[in-house]
Structures are given as structure tokens and as C-alpha cells.
Request: fold
Amino acid sequence: MIESALKRTPLHNLHLELGAKMVPFAGYDMPVQYPTGILTEHLQTRRQAGLFDVSHMGQLRLTAKPGGGSLAGALERVVTSDIAGLAPGRTRYALLLSSGVVPALFLLAGAWVWALRRRR
Reply:
């Protein structure tokens, strides 16, 4: 894939300003490492916090049919997390159980929809 064809996340310019080494990943120009090194990144995340740009992940919106029962209940049958207890605007990491396990699934509770973000 040629570099000009790569998509960019909303944080792309910030990654460049911070001196990130950018590489093609899933059709996006993504940061793989910063000048301070992986160990410094790891320690910063352990001491304070880390930020992971999920803009390149797929997104799926699910809505319940009127009179169709609980969407949270249906999701709890196929994921490893408590969905019904997830407050609107909050997110939770989960695994999607199918014929295999789908890693990196994020569940976002909204007022009217549940959004699933999944790594491709």
C-alpha cells in the first residue's frame, strides 16, 4: 500500500508532533514507537496513564427492536463482561465469545445504542 493511500486517525498530527515512528497498519498510518522508547512509554503508563487511539478500529452499532427484549441481556450471553451494569457514557473491555475469541472488544454504553469496537 502506498503511503498516500493510508488513512489517518484524528490524532495523526499529534503523533507526528511527538516524533512517532509511523507504520502502515490495517490501512492506517499508525504510530509504533516514540523517540523516548518503549520502556519509557511503559513506565509512564504504569505510573500515570496511557492513551490508545482506537480510531482505526471497526465500529458496530446495535439497537434493540421495540418489544424485542433486553439488548444488554442478549450481549451478556456472548461477551465476558457485565453489560447491564454499564452506565451510559462508560466503556468496558470484553471478549466476544463465538467459535473462537475476538480480542480487543470495547463496549460503550450510550443513551440509546450500544457500540462495539473491535480490532480487525
About this structure: The CA atoms of residues 29 and 73 lie 37 Å apart. The chain has a mean pLDDT of 77. Helices lie at 12-17, 38-47, 71-76. Strands lie at 21-25, 28-33, 58-62, 91-97, 101-109, 114-118.
